UniProtKB/TrEMBL annotation, chain A:
SMART domains: CO_deh_flav_C (SM01092)
GO molecular function: FAD binding; oxidoreductase activity
Highest taxon above the source species: Bacteria
Xref: InterPro entries: CO_DH_flav_C (IPR005107), CO_DH_flav_C_dom_sf (IPR036683), Diverse_Substr_Oxidored (IPR051312), FAD-bd_PCMH (IPR016166), FAD-bd_PCMH-like_sf (IPR036318), FAD-bd_PCMH_sub1 (IPR016167), FAD-bd_PCMH_sub2 (IPR016169), Mopterin_DH_FAD-bd (IPR002346)
Organism in which the protein naturally occurs: Streptomyces afghaniensis 772
PROSITE patterns from the UniProt entry: FAD_PCMH
Keyword Magnesium appears in the UniProt entry: no
Coiled coil: none
Protein name per UniProt: Putative xanthine dehydrogenase YagS FAD-binding subunit
Residue ranges annotated for the FAD-binding PCMH-type domain, each copy included: 1-220
Length: 326, 732
């Protein structure tokens, strides 16, 4: 670990000031401290934001939910409104990490977490994300767990978060506070595909602080859920995952929100699958036909070819589970 | 067998050191409070093979707190005396730290930074700049040139195979596995003149002592190794690894006591592993399943500098009856660190292959897997012609089949479904060598009626403290609470390595001997003492119970140790005990056996395998400590689940880097993966094996689990997976 200075802030303006001067925000620290120990991250200044008043979950006027950036994963997962309105969010959270980590880690930190690509996390390996221009060791290396969607020649690392997949599916918005005021960024614009600049992972301006994630109101009734496929039953990142929310009325799917995890360089929204569902009646054939589009555009690597088929099956299964047909 | 009543042995006692452990008072290697200790952090090579061309330590040395950076350019030449007689090392030339510029594997220690704080040492280590002349390493088992094989043959297996009615030709692959104990390797080294004291994580204080004496050219008694608690080992601490030498060297060079703890990542870089195998097995049988021949061709990983071999051939020679066997075992030298024994060494791998193949043969013939094994049950050990000391595998099968509900298994693959889950049941036989080696112990009975027993043994988790206390208590006729057992110090009487499931048979028998001698001394004193109520009684008629000596058939006639010793002005009685397996030609074949049963659920659509239950039935001889035995069995089964479904050390062959050197990416089972696990021990003992009648348990409980799971996966899905671990891509 490299030496660093540490400061606590008590209001958001103070935080943004410190951030603008180059400070790195730290809340639960479950990702950042790990990476500092490996010297992957070498911040000079840590700005502890856990004293900020960003720990509330509130209902928005129009029937959505605003989850404060400092709400812990376990608090969000246990929250009655989250559980009843958006099971896909609470399930994604509960299938993440371990109980101990969920008690520490925050929602804002969760969507900021960095990839589990083992080459990224090993400072002696080539990695464009960590050391731009050094190359991507994963591209032709051991890449079973890597991305098949949204990749580039510069980076094939997956975004590791589960709840971000649910947020992407639900088309959440990220609330930001920066030196120039507040703004709201659609989730799909917040996390960036690697392209030729994999070191740039979020659409954040210097000093900007995540204050909340807002889930928009969706038509009711809304059924939703999250499926995570992995080798181990707990405490492991996804090989593939699917977040599904369906609004079915009169026996017809009126709205569909579907995204996949474990397969993309960012949480992977599946608009082609959604389009295939809307206006149709739930059936096994529909799930299968819709899910067949889940891997469109996939570019598998040497060891992760299986994800192309597994992703389709994961989406099909979760459509069936949420849609409630055989 | 002791004439003493057995009150403690066989009782389901909790660990005598349990309270120390749960209150944090049990001190592990890195936790000993050594005055003035400074910290060392190793710099690992970032290439897989080549030479170091330069080392720049300037930035590290400029850091406040950094005392010294040691590497091959400034390290003293160390004697590295031959130590082949004592440490049972693989043939070859052991890795010598900082003695030359060669890099032999990715992550080899190339320098060490010593600093007054851990933080400074860690930061300093990240600032050491090493340049290399790198070569492409060879790390792929299937691509490299093997050594000359070790061979075994009886009969003419190739000819018998050609004429067999049924032939199978099967190739299996097993992944490299790392031990991953909870406690990392750690060493504190302190010099006092030419005398070296080391607090170390080790499964053999005597082995670490002899190796350090050899490396530094010291007399054996100039080195003391202390290791009272070990936080898991599974074999990784059976060898004195280079980092232990680094710690001692750093302490000598800085003239300060030095603490060196390996990071979790470094646990994968130079402290041994279960090698990966490619194992081709050809079986020939008649139509009824009577085996005629087996031809085994095995390739296994080893390092470029040492040839590591393990007992992977024995099971193929003796588990089933067949006239013709041929085996060729080739090690493949690779740019890797040297492997080491890991729980159930050799047998674990052989058992996966043989027991999977038997299941394949059973399916091919349409014979029940248990029935097939019964048809091939040998009358004697066909590799030696010796009778088995005890072999109760048939009983393991019948008890297991009954308890597991084997008759409810549908032999037709893919025939049992529950929703999205396919259900399968499988079984395997297991075998492990009953190892025993010479051991000593010392016992002392004090006039206050308490006793102290000492041996240089280890307790890496099986409960040596507790089980040795049980043996000692019964032999002395004391309660467990009045007996203290001490271990983990090279000053105590020497014992063999704490591995190969031999501690109870070896150390336990030495403890028994020492305590029997002390008890007999006391009885001798009493029956010769005119003032004793036992005066004149035949010594053989006296037993001791609860610290009181009495006539066996007349409990009222007797007196306590305390009274006897006090009256005779004896502060204590003491004796040295020993055990050695009989010398000369063996008269029996000694093995422990099991039948292991597994039930799995497979989501074939998503490629998920979930173990539902595992049952092991063990012919392990006498069980000294049933509660600890259950802990062993559960741990072994969990290890077997890991081997079967999760554990796999991954190498990037481009540069020899291990890419999953951490516990997030190298998967071991978590609680959710560990279902209903049950162990049953056949009542009995092995009187030929050792005075306690035990056959060893720690390895045996892991063997058979992986093939039982693989066979259950086949029963569930109809998909035969011949590569471990079994992961989603093999089942989609």
């Amino acid at each position: 670990m490299h030496p660093f200075s540490y400061t606590r802030v008590s209001d958001t303006r103070e935080a943004v000031d410190a951030g603008r001067r180059g400070g790195r925000y730290i809340a639960g620290g479950t990702t950042l401290v790990d990476l500092m120990r490996e010297t992957v991250e070498r911040p000079e200044t840590l700005v502890d934001i856990t004293g900020l008043p960003l720990g509330e979950i509130t209902a928005t006027e129009r029937g959505g939910l605003r989850i404060g950036a400092l709400v812990t994963m376990s608090e969000a997962a246990a929250h009655a409104k989250v559980r009843t309105l958006y099971p896909v969010v609470s399930e994604a959270l509960e299938l993440s990490a371990s109980a101990q980590l969920r008690n520490m880690a925050t929602i804002g930190g969760n969507i900021m977490q960095r990839t589990r690509c083992t080459y990224f996390r090993d400072v002696t390996a080539d990695c464009n994300k960590r050391d731009p221009g050094s190359g991507c060791a994963a591209l032709h290396g051991v890449n079973r767990t890597h991305a098949i969607l949204g990749t580039s020649g510069a980076c094939v690392a997956t975004h590791p978060s589960d709840v971000a997949v649910a947020f992407a599916a639900l088309e959440a918005r990220v609330h930001l506070l920066g030196p120039d005021g507040t703004r709201r960024v659609p989730f799909s614009d917040f996390l960036l595909r690697p392209g030729s600049t994999p070191q740039r992972e979020q659409a954040l301006l210097k000093g900007e602080l995540i204050t909340a994630v807002e889930i928009p109101a969706l038509p009711r009734p809304l059924r939703s859920g999250y499926l995570k496929v992995r080798d181990r039953q707990s405490y492991e990142f996804a090989l593939t995952s699917a977040a599904v929310a369906l609004h079915i009325r009169g026996g017809v799917i009126r709205e569909a929100r579907v995204a996949a995890g474990g397969v993309g360089t960012v949480p992977w929204k599946l608009p082609a699958v959604e389009r295939h569902l809307v206006g149709e009646r739930p059936s096994g054939a529909l799930w299968s036909a819709a899910a067949a589009k889940a891997s469109d555009g996939a570019r598998p690597l040497q060891h992760n070819r299986f994800k192309v088929e597994l992703l389709k099956r994961t989406v099909e299964r979760q459509l069936r589970v949420v849609g409630g047909t055989k | 067998m002791s004439p003493q009543p057995q009150a403690a042995v066989g009782a389901p006692l909790s660990r005598v050191d349990g309270r120390l452990k749960v209150t944090g008072k049990a001190l592990y290697a890195a936790e000993h409070d050594v005055d003035g200790v400074v910290h060392a952090v190793i710099v690992d090579s970032s290439i897989g093979r080549g030479r170091i061309t330069s080392i720049d330590t300037g930035a590290a040395e400029a850091l406040p707190g950094v005392l010294k950076v040691i590497h091959h350019r400034n390290a003293p030449k160390l004697p590295y005396r031959d130590n082949s007689a004592s440490n049972n090392p693989p043939e070859g030339r052991r890795l010598r730290v900082f003695q030359d510029d060669r890099v032999r594997f990715h992550g080899q220690p190339v320098a060490v930074v010593v600093a007054t704080t851990l933080e400074a040492a860690q930061h300093g280590a990240s600032l050491v700049e090493v340049d290399y002349d790198a070569e492409r390493p060879s790390t792929d088992l299937t691509e490299a040139e093997p050594d000359e094989p070790t061979r075994y043959a009886r009969g003419d297996a190739e000819a018998a195979l050609r004429s067999a009615a049924v032939r199978l030709d099967l190739t299996y692959r097993t992944a490299r596995n790392h031990h991953n104990p909870m406690e990392p390797h750690a060493t504190i080294a302190r010099w006092n003149g030419d005398k070296l004291t080391v607090w170390d994580k080790t499964q053999w204080v005597v082995g670490t002592q002899t190796e350090l004496a050899a490396v530094f050219g010291l007399d054996l008694d100039a080195v003391r190794v202390i290791s009272p608690f070990v936080g898991g080992g599974f074999g990784t601490a059976l060898r004195c690894w280079p980092h232990v030498v680094v710690a001692a060297l750093a302490a000598r060079e800085t003239k300060r006591p030095v603490k060196l703890v390996l990071s979790r990542k470094q646990m994968y870089l130079g402290t041994g592993f279960r090698p990966s195998y490619e194992y081709r097995l050809r079986l020939g049988s008649d139509r009824r399943g009577r085996l005629a021949a087996a031809v085994h061709d095995l390739d296994a990983e080893t390092s470029s500098y040492e040839k590591f071999t393990e007992a992977v051939l024995a099971a193929g020679q003796m588990l089933y009856s067949m006239p013709h066997v041929s085996q060729a075992y080739r090690t493949v030298p690779l740019d890797l660190p040297t492997p080491l024994w890991m729980r159930g060494p050799g047998f674990q791998t052989a058992s996966f292959v043989i027991e999977s193949a038997m299941d394949e043969l059973a399916h091919e013939l349409g014979v029940d897997p248990i029935e097939l094994r019964r048809r091939n049950e040998p009358a004697e050990d066909e590799s030696s012609g010796l009778p088995f000391s005890t072999r109760r595998l048939r009983e393991c099968y019948s008890v297991g089949a009954r308890e597991f509900g084997w008759d409810r298994r549908n032999p037709e693959p893919r025939s049992t479904r529950e929703g999205d889950w396919l259900i399968g049941r499988g079984m395997a036989a297991g075998v492990y060598d009953t190892a025993r080696m010479p051991a000593r112990a010392r016992a002392r009975l004090d006039a206050d009626g308490t006793a102290l027993v000492e041996a240089a043994a280890t307790d890496m988790g099986p409960g040596t403290y507790t089980s040795q206390t049980q043996v000692a208590a019964d032999a002395l006729g004391l309660t467990v609470r009045t007996v203290t057992f001490r271990l983990g110090d090279s000053l105590y009487p020497p014992t063999p390595p704490h591995g190969g499931s031999m501690t109870m048979a070896s150390v336990g028998s030495a403890t028994l001997d020492a305590c029997n001698k002390v008890r007999r001394q006391a009885i001798g004193l009493a029956v010769g003492d005119r003032e004793s109520p036992l005066y004149g009684v035949a010594a053989d008629d006296v037993v001791v119970r609860g610290g009181r000596l009495h006539v066996k058939n007349d409990p009222a006639r007797g007196e306590t140790y305390r009274r006897l010793l006090t009256r005779n002005d004896r502060t204590h009685l003491e004796a040295d005990g020993s055990f050695a397996p009989p010398s000369g030609p063996q008269r029996h074949s000694f093995y422990g056996y099991n039948a292991t049963f597994a039930e799995v659920a497979v989501d074939a659509t998503l490629g998920l395998v979930r173990v539902r239950r595992v049952l092991g039935v063990y012919d392990a001889g006498r069980i000294i400590s049933p509660k600890l035995a259950d802990s062993q069995a559960i741990g072994g089964m969990v290890g077997g689940i890991g081997t079967a479904l999760l554990e796999h050390t991954l190498t990037d062959h481009r540069d020899g880097r291990i890419v999953n050197a951490n516990l997030a990416d190298y998967l071991v089972p978590v609680n959710a993966d560990v279902p209903d696990l049950k162990a049953i021990y056949l009542d009995g003992e092995d009187r030929e094996a050792d005075p306690l009648g035990v056959k060893g348990l720690g390895e045996l409980v892991m063997i058979g689990v992986a093939p039982a799971i693989a066979n259950a996966v086949f029963n569930a899905t109809g998909r035969r997976v011949r590569e471990l671990p079994i992961t989603a891509e093999a089942l989609l």
